[in-house]
Amino acid sequence: MDLGIRGKRALVCASSKGLGYGCAEALAEAGVDLVINARGSEALEAAAERLRGHGVNVTAIAADVTSEEGRAKVLAEGPFDILVTNAGGPPPGIWSDWTREDFLKALDANMLTPIALMTAIVPGMVDRGWGRVVNITSQSVKAPIAQLGLSNAARTGLTGYVAGTSRQVAAQGVNINNLLPGSHDTDRIAALNKAASEKQGVSLDDARRAHQAGIPAGRYGTAAEFGAMCAFLCSQHAGFIVGQNVLLDGGATVATI
């Protein structure tokens, strides 16, 4: 399928690896020029080189987009037709572990940073009459995960913001939606499995197998299939999809709505 976005320009955050890279690669395959971002320059440059193999222009900006300085660096590369927001989730724990400072950090990374990026980029999309925003959030927005309370809180706040904002700009050709990953084979899941193995006193392999057994699909998702859905939401074919929360979790969230 031709996604109809060849020649568009996208900012994809936290895209040196994992789900962010999967999104960047799928967009590159569709002919989209990219500005990619991550904090680590070495992995970022390696990712940029791979993406250039798809015949698109790729600019790599090493910066922390959760900071004002970092956002200024990536925004200076605009304007953008497509924005994919993404940031690593806060650490797991239990309710009694978390302080006000922990919540402020989570809100900064997983709610306020995407909002700041949209606030900066969406007006230009509105002026040009076309734009796509995809926020990578979490399955925990649909079904909160007890040990991920910081993430639950911050990402649900972002979801509420998107619900209203997306409906205010849809008539101007700008579509904002959220992608909700479940368990994909990324560093984030590896860290959670490591924590589970230590807490339960089992091997890492056993923790991984037990985790996958709880997913109806019987496996973890891949960055490539996640990226394919992201690219579709950024395509010309997704113009009637507004303010939605799309689960990619292998059936792990038991819900009908």
Description:
The chain is α/β, with parallel strands linked by helices and 257 residues long. Helix content is 46%, strand content 14%. The chain has helices at residues 18-29, 41-52, 68-75, 100-128, 149-169, 187-200, 204-213, 223-233; strands at 9-12, 33-38, 58-62, 82-85, 131-136, 174-181, 245-248. A seven-stranded parallel sheet has the order 3-2-1-4-5-6-7, with helices on both faces. Strand 2, helix 2 and strand 3 (58-62) form a beta-alpha-beta unit. Helix 6 crosses helix 7. The protein is globular and about 55 Å long. The model has no long low-confidence stretch (mean pLDDT 95).
Topology diagram in text:
Layout: E1 9-12, H1 18-29, E2 33-38, H2 41-52, E3 58-62, H3 68-75, E4 82-85, H4 100-128, E5 131-136, H5 149-169, E6 174-181, H6 187-200, H7 204-213, H8 223-233, E7 245-248
Helix pairs in contact: 1-8, 4-5, 6-7
Structure keywords:
single chain; about 260 residues; alpha/beta; 7-stranded parallel beta sheet; 8 helices
